[in-house]
Design goal:
Largest sheet: 7 strands, antiparallel
Shape: globular
Number of helices: 23
Helix content: 25-40%
Radius of gyration: 23 Å
Length: 557
């Protein structure tokens, strides 16, 4: 896990090492264990290292292939790197380290862009091919690791964070007003825009090539989510056993490390189950919880502190447990630092996550997190239920788009943006929302299809926002956050799982939508336990039943 940055001068000007260093210095917090800079002709690659696998100098980056053709700066972890290494050794490749970085390097040399579909892990990288004079940039399936880029003047710039790009003199920080309107609509970014004019984020599951002569090529997608009903469903018992096997394997895979691995432990099912399985492999592993000062709390506020449930699970799983208590004023105190690290707001409140990462980083370099379980197994039923009865695809878009106007509704957005309306009037956020679904409209014929499309949309947008925040706030403290729910095999399984094993049968939900009985609040609380049905049943093998049956609760203050 690291920070990467660099550039390619498209006018052929020699790359200045001091500019590479300036860019990597801006993200030094991501890699306190070392730094590297490599330049050749118009290309410069930089790296800040957080040493996790192969702590020796052999894992130093940027890393070059033995024949000198390829140079790589890489951020991430491949959990199947040992299997890939065996394949590459059988093909004649020889390794000088035990790092996954070298496996990525030679996998790309051997298989080209096809290697991307074989990587099971989280990554963002830039690979320079000195023979072909072109650079390949790519990002993992889900967008766990961010990668920003910009074409400024005669240079193509990239970095793990926008601040690395902004450290280059070719680009000045300026507000991106269309991106601002997008954020104020969705409390997120559904496109590749950011709040910085001229700076984009490479979409998850995509790659792009930059030729030293031809310039920046088209973005290519090598993977996408595909939630759909199975053609030949298995029995419930078979699904249960397969899920248990895949989940246990995912957790075990993500324990690969040459340093200690810990885990976040809230009072919920997802982090509790990860901890339960990881603790079987790592005796007395460290776990971390952030709670809240309840001195003046009352009513529903009391539910926001999960320390008691976390302490109980720590006792059951025999972990070495650490807690931090957040108090009034703690958000204000760290807001300047958090804003600098986060760079732009996404999805919701996140200052508790900043403190949780700060706590974990005092004891560990790596921590397991429960992010992703809700998005791939259907953890937000009250959201999907709003859009299961529709006249057609456009009707579905209208209904779900209305729900996802999270900050300022369309009826007020023009008034709020009146002083700069001329700069943003061409932005149609409904079209942005619709474009998330690409060409899926023809496949909608039943309520289950609409639920699967809602899962698709939220994985592409909401989950991506959560992952960007998770990366920024963990790496602010030099901490690697791993997400076992986003193991490739587990996600592939979840996408083909029947909707009834996520949300139950939808007939009663259809009736609710058609007849509109009772209050919206009553329907909300009636359905909050409906999500992740098969996952809950399977998790009962590993965590207490009352934890499995708890209401869904986010990490909010």
């Amino acid at each position: 896990m690291c920070g990467i940055a660099g550039f390619l001068n498209l006018d052929g000007a020699p790359a200045a090492p001091e500019l590479v260093k300036r860019m990597t210095d801006a993200i030094a917090h991501r890699g306190p264990d070392g730094e590297g800079c490599w330049t050749e002709g118009p290309v410069g690659l930089g790296h800040r290292r957080l040493a996790i696998i192969d702590l020796s100098p052999s894992g130093h980056q940027p890393m070059r292939s033995g024949d000198g053709r390829y140079s790589l700066t890489y951020n991430g972890e491949l959990y199947n790197y040992r299997e890939l290494r065996e394949e590459l050794e059988a093909k004649g490749y020889r390794f000088g380290s035990t790092s996954d970085t070298e496996v990525v390097l030679y996998a790309l040399a051997a298989w080209g862009k096809a290697a991307l579909t074989r990587f099971n892990g989280m990554f963002a990288f830039a690979l320079w091919d000195g023979r072909e004079r072109r650079m390949l940039l790519a990002r993992d399936r889900y967008g766990i690791k961010p990668l920003y880029y910009s074409k400024a003047e005669q240079s193509f710039l990239f970095g793990s964070e926008a601040k690395a790009i902004l450290a280059h003199p070719a680009l000045r920080a300026k507000m991106n007003l269309p991106g601002l309107l997008e954020y104020f609509t969705f409390q997120n970014f559904f496109t590749d825009q950011t709040l910085f004019e001229g700076v984009s984020i490479l979409p998850a599951g995509c790659s792009v090539e930059v030729d030293a002569v031809k310039g920046v090529g088209a973005i290519e997608r090598y993977w996408d989510y595909c939630f759909q009903e199975p053609e030949n469903p298995k029995s419930d018992a078979e699904y249960m056993e397969e899920l248990d096997f895949l989940f246990q394997r995912a957790v075990k895979r993500q324990l690969v490390s040459d340093v200690d691995v810990g885990a976040y432990l809230s009072g919920g099912m997802d982090s509790g189950s990860i901890t339960a399985l990881a603790a079987k492999q790592v005796p007395y592993m460290r776990t971390f919880t952030c709670g809240f000062d309840m001195t003046s709390a009352s009513g529903v506020e009391l539910n926001f502190d999960e320390r008691q449930a976390a302490e109980r699970m720590s006792y059951l799983f025999k972990t070495e447990h650490y807690e931090m208590v957040l108090k009034a004023g703690d958000m204000e105190r760290i807001m300047p630092a958090m804003a600098w690290h986060l760079e732009e707001p996404r999805v919701g409140q996140s200052y508790p996550n900043y403190y949780a990462a700060k706590l974990a980083s005092k004891f560990n370099k790596v921590v397991l997190a429960g992010t992703g379980g809700d998005e791939i197994f259907g953890g937000y039923p009250w959201r999907y239920y709003r859009a299961v009865v529709n006249d057609d695809f456009e009707h579905y878009i209208d209904k779900y788009y209305a729900y996802w106007q999270r900050l300022i509704p369309n009826t007020q957005i023009r008034e709020v943006f009146a002083p700069v309306w001329g700069d943003v009037k061409q932005v149609w956020t409904r079209d942005i929302f619709r474009d998330v679904f690409a060409s899926h409209a023809s496949t909608l014929t039943r309520p289950e299809d609409y639920v699967n499309h809602s899962l698709y949309m939220e994985a592409k947008t909401f989950l991506h926002g959560l992952l960007v925040v998770e990366d920024k706030l963990s790496m602010a403290h030099g901490l690697e956050s791993r997400v076992p729910f986003l193991d490739n095999d587990l996600v592939d399984f979840a996408m083909k799982l029947p909707t009834r094993l996520k949300l139950g049968h939808l007939e009663d939900v259809v009736q609710l939508n058609e007849n509109e009985p009772g209050s919206k609040t009553a329907r909300y609380f009636q359905k909050t336990r409906d999500g992740k049905l098969l996952l809950r049943k399977m998790m009962a093998r590993h965590v207490p039943q009352d934890i499995v049956e708890r209401e869904k609760q986010g990490f909010s203050a």
